[in-house]
Amino acid sequence: MPPKNESVLNPKTTKYEFLGPIGAFQMITVLPILVCVLHLSCQFDGNPSRELIIYLSNINNVKNLFTLSNILSLFDLTAFFAYIIYLAYLIVLYYLIPGHWVEGTQLRDGTKLKYKVNGFYSMTLTIILIIIILNTKGYEPFLFIDEHFIGLITSSIIVAFFLSLYVYLDSFQEGKLLAIGGNSGNAIYDFMIGRELNPRIGSFDIKYFVELRPGLIGWTIINIAMAIKQYHELGYVTIGMFLIVIFQGWYCFDAVYNEPAVLTTMDITTDGFGWMLSFGNLTWVAFLYALQARYLALHPVHLSQFQIVSIICLQAVGYSIFRGANNEKNFFRNNPEDPKIKRMSILSISIHLVEYIESITDNHSVIVMTKQI
C-alpha cells in the first residue's frame, strides 16, 4: 500500500537547487527582463540596436528604464486580450478535439493519472486555420504579432505569474501530492520551483497542458508571423527564414506528435509546477526561441548553396540523433525489462532516485532516497 502519513508522502525538501531562495528570486526578477531586453534590442539598425546602446550608455537613462511609467508602457491591453483569446482557443481545442487517454507513470501515492492526447490535432488545425486566413484575409492580420510583440511578451509574463500564484496557493489544500523538490517551506523558492506535482482543475492537468501546447504552438505561429513580416518588408521570404520556419516547425510538430512521451519526462514525473515551468513554457519557449526568426525578419541573411546543403544535412543528422535517443529513453522508462533493451549497456551517473519499496518488517510503504553511482 502507498504511504498514508503526510510527512512520509510529502517529505520536506532538504536540498535547494538554483542557489536556493536567492537564486529563485533572481530568476523571477531577471529572466522576464532578459526576454524583453533581447527583443527590444533587436531592431532594424542592429542587434543589439545601436540607438539602444547609445541610450543605455547614459546611466540616468538606465535608471529611467525602471520607472513605473516605463514599466507600465510595456503593457498592451490589445495584446493582452489577444493572448488570453489564444490560450482560451487552445483550451477549447483540448476539450473539443477527440483524443485518446493514456495513463501516466505511477505516482508516490500509488495512483496513475490519465491524460488526454490530442496536441497534434490542435497544432494541425491551427496551421490549417492560418492557411485559411492567408487565403481569405491576406497576410496583414499576422503583422499584428510583430506590431504588438513586446505587449504579447508582457502578457505571457503576467499570465505565467498569476498561474504560478494560483497553483502555489492551491497546493496548500488538503490531499495534494507535492513535488519532492518543492516543499521546502520557503515561499519564494517553492513558488518558483513548483510545490504541487500535478495541479489539476477536474481532469484538466495544468502542467501537462502548459508543457507543450501554448509554447510550441505559439513558437510556430510567431515564426510564421516573422516570415510574413519579412515578406512584407522585402516582397519575398529568404531561404534562411524558410529553413527556420520549416525546421523549428518540424521540431514542434514532432513534440506534439510524440505527446505521450512527455509523460515519462522529469517535468511531469518529478518537477512541481511553479513559476519556472509556467514562465519557461509560456514565455521563454514561445518568445525567446522565436528570436532567430525575428532577427531574420529584420536582418535577412542570404545563404549560399553550400550553406543551405550543410544546414539541411546538419538538421537531418541532429534530428535523427535527437529522435532516436528520445524514443529509446521513453521506451526504457515504460519497459525497462523488455528484452530489446535489457542487454543494452547503461551509463551510470550520480543521480537521486525516488523509489517505493514495501517494508517486510512493518508492512507499510516508505520512501527511500537512493543514489546511483
Automatic annotation (TrEMBL):
Belongs to the ERG4/ERG24 family. The keyword Transmembrane applies. Keywords: Lipid biosynthesis, Lipid metabolism, Membrane, Oxidoreductase, Steroid biosynthesis, Steroid metabolism, Sterol biosynthesis, Sterol metabolism, Transmembrane, Transmembrane helix. The lineage of its organism: Eukaryota, Fungi, Fungi incertae sedis, Mucoromycota, Glomeromycotina. One of its GO terms (biological process) is ergosterol biosynthetic process. The chain crosses the membrane at residues 20-40, 78-97, 118-136, 148-169, 234-253, 273-291. Its main location: membrane. This is ERG4/ERG24 ergosterol biosynthesis protein. It is found in: Membrane. It is a multi-pass membrane protein. GO terms for molecular function: Delta14-sterol reductase activity. PROSITE patterns: STEROL_REDUCT_1. One of its GO terms (cellular component) is endoplasmic reticulum membrane. The keyword Transmembrane helix applies. It comes from the Eukaryota.
